[in-house]
Design the sequence.
């Protein structure tokens, strides 16, 4: 038994080191996002629709689901998040034609529905803050996290308009929003989780008392049939 446990432990250690070496070499900053922070999610949604949705779809998400989860009325969703004349029940696609995008950027901008799940929030947060001038690239910028990225620095105007701390916060909100989009049920899961733990706690006390009652006689060797 002990040998098996040691084997599993050794295998998980090797897997962990493989994972680490597969990741990008750039040092990632901690995104420090909080998916329960609704104000941050609302701001992130707004920034995403303004600065990213022109190229990127989040086609697993619908406008009205965002409205429901982030406490925004249909009118607010229409005013702040929808720029095309779609209906609120529609999935969030992009109007960018794929073949044109391929020739403009050398690749179709990927759908970002699950990007926070595949790359992680730290990666997105650092990536969006790591563009630097590089005249040899088509858009005049390169990126330290995704080397030779074909994405332009979509947030440059925001960076110029804000202080460094404000800009970091904006990027944090966008990252938070993408984290939420990757698993919208997380909001319910985290809220429900507390109640489930509380229930299990109460159940534990009751079952423990019941167990004590059952074992009382057995333990002290005074078991006898009740006839
Ligand atoms: C002008 C079009 C355009 C805009 C605007 C844009 N992107 Fe991109 N984005 C791209 C392209 C093209 C790629 C593919 C880059 C590559 O693989 O070289 C990309 C890649 C990415 C990736 C990496 C995805 C992956 O799995 O590799 C992330 C994350 C991302 N974009 C986030 C954003 C966010 C957040 C915004 C808004 C702040 C944004 N993008 C705005 C075109 C755009």
Sequence:
């Amino acid at each position: 038994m002990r040998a098996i446990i040691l084997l599993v432990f050794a295998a998980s250690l090797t897997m962990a080191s493989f994972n680490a070496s597969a990741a990008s070499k750039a040092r990632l900053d901690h995104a420090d996002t909080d998916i329960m922070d609704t104000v941050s999610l609302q701001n992130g949604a707004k920034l995403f629709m303004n600065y990213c949705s022109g190229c990127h779809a989040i086609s697993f998400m619908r406008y009205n689901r965002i409205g429901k989860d982030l406490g925004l009325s249909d009118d607010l969703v229409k005013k702040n998040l929808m720029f095309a004349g779609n209906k609120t029940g529609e999935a969030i696609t992009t109007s960018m034609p794929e073949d044109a995008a391929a020739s403009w950027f050398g690749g179709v901008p990927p759908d970002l529905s699950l990007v926070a799940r595949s790359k992680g929030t730290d990666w997105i947060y650092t990536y969006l803050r790591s563009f630097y001038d590089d005249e040899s690239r088509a858009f005049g910028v390169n990126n330290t996290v995704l080397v030779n990225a074909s994405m332009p620095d979509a947030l440059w105007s925001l960076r110029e308009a804000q202080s460094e701390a404000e800009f970091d916060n904006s990027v944090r909100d966008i990252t938070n929003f993408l984290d939420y989009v990757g698993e919208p049920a997380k909001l319910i899961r985290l809220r429900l989780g507390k109640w489930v733990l509380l229930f299990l706690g109460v159940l534990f006390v009751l079952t423990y008392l019941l167990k004590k009652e059952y074992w009382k006689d057995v333990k002290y060797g005074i078991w006898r049939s009740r006839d």
In short: Residues 28 and 126 are 6 Å apart (CA to CA). Confidence is low (pLDDT under 50) at residues 18-23. The pocket of heme C is lined by residues 51-52, 54-56, 105, 107, 109-110, 112, 115, 119, 124, 127-128, 149-152, 154-155, 174 (CB under 6 Å).
